[in-house]
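Progress narrative, work stream C.
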Amino acid sequence: MVVEPTIFIKGTINRLFSRGFLAKKLELIGFSISEGYQFSNHIYSDLLRLEKNKLSKSYFDKFVYNHLKSKYNENIAEKYILIENWYDTGIPLWILITGAKGVGKSTLSRQIASDLGIQHIIETDVVRDVLRKILSSEVTPELHASTYNAYKKLRPIYSSRLDEVIIGFENHAKFVNMGVDAVLSRAEIESVSIVVEGEHLLPAFFDEIIRKKTNVIFITLALSDSAQHLENLNSQYTQEKEDLIKHFEEIRKVHDHIVNETKIRKLPIVELESSQKPLQQVRKLIVDKIVSIVSTK
């Protein structure tokens, strides 16, 4: 059995060079996984040819940068090096991803966290469940319903001129966002990157954080095709599935409300129709944020 030569990279964290790991990083700047792996093979071969079995992280980054610049262009090479610089700075990145039930938040959020090596992924449903243990249904009846039918728990003080579904949704979400705010406060103390995803995240609740903190990116996922949205809900394997289908009209109201609130604040919206390649769009938004963070540091 032939054992391949290893290449040792010395940095803040010492590690062996991995072609798969480099290919994964290159996905962030637009490479397909196969193209990234092919390029990584090229890097590996050239380092061995130059007998570079042990090298510093700075040398390795410059080596990859020069190859990217030569084979592709300076813009791609610059993005790579800026992302690597971000890792070295230790500046945390907070990624907040919202959207109605069934649009595909969880799958995309896990992929983004994996791309960036972010270990902390918080679902707002988990925050909600914790709060339900603390706050009784007598005190917060809307919290103990779902976002799409919380309006059924509304007290009769609300004006009938307003859409009850949206009032119920916002009353439900405001409690969850208090919990999310606590999570972010903890992330700030510990200086860790985090992905928070869930339908409870409304831009209005995070205006101040988004305005004041340059390391925060708020992304709304939208699915304009209501038939596709319904199909997504139909394909879910949860006990809630039948209730979701039954309340699809309310869920679409929540969907449109989240999207409209995002548009008002001119924050990023990513359309989740398959032809639009949403993962690539989200990756680009995040890379642009990282480039901004490092460039202004």
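Work stream C, second folded protein:
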Amino acid sequence: MPEVIFKIKWPSGDIESCYSPSTSILNYLEAGKSYSVEDFVSLSSKALEIASQKVMDKYGFRCTSAENQASKIIATAKSFGAKETVTCLSME
């Protein structure tokens, strides 16, 4: 499956490289676009859930890397206000 690394910039200015095991993330996030923390968590969680399910459909097991990435995003987002912004810097 084609994987995607998407780089994001948190409201703190920290830049993080995130992992998706499929291109489904491209249907939810766009490089160069900013999202409220609330929307970013919702969109990225949805996309990573779909990606994990695609791995399950193809290989018979869920993608723990996608699930761990979603958990990390949710945990980090808790330190910011819902309306602060996360910017998707790139999709590689």
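The two ends are 14 Å apart (CA to CA). No further action is required on this item.
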